[in-house]
Amino acid sequence: MAPSSIGVVEPRKGGAVAERERRTARLTAEQKWQIFLEASRKNTTDAQVCRRWGIAPHQLRVIRERAKESSLKGFSRGPGRPSTDPQITELRAELERTTAAMHELAIENTLLRGKVNRV
């Protein structure tokens, strides 16, 4: 089976299940995308893709689920600028309140210093 037409990522060497369990290297996002593309082809089986990349079938299922979730999230956005996060809006409002309070305190402090210096 030939690698994806993009060809930027090389699959891991296949091997026995025991050998796969000993691997500790994590797949990069690009590798996961390559696995998803390869598994989506009609001329390959899931077992072939899993053997080729040295992953377990449940990992392939997780890759497919995450690809679906990310796609749906991306497609659900409307056109134009992305909406601002409510937490960011709340933090900006809090910053404005705090700045106004500090400004008032600075004025009061200046007035109090004037009274103390006159006495």
Protein model, in words:
With 119 residues, the protein is mostly helical. The chain has 5 helices and no strands. The chain has helices at 17-22, 29-40, 46-53, 57-76, 86-118. The radius of gyration is 29 Å and the shape is rod-shaped. The N and C termini lie far apart (92 Å).
Features:
119 residues, mainly alpha, 2 domains, 5 helices, 0% strand, disordered N terminus
Summarize the structure.
Helices cover 66% and strands 0% of the residues. The protein has 5 helices and no strands.
Task: Give helix and strand order, one letter per element, not per position.
Answer: HHHHH
Beginning-to-end CA distance, first to last residue:
92 Å
Pick out the low-confidence regions. Answer: 1-8
Q: How many whole angstroms does the radius of gyration measure?
A: 29 Å
- Can you count the helices? 5
Q: Helix content range of the residues, please?
A: 55-70%
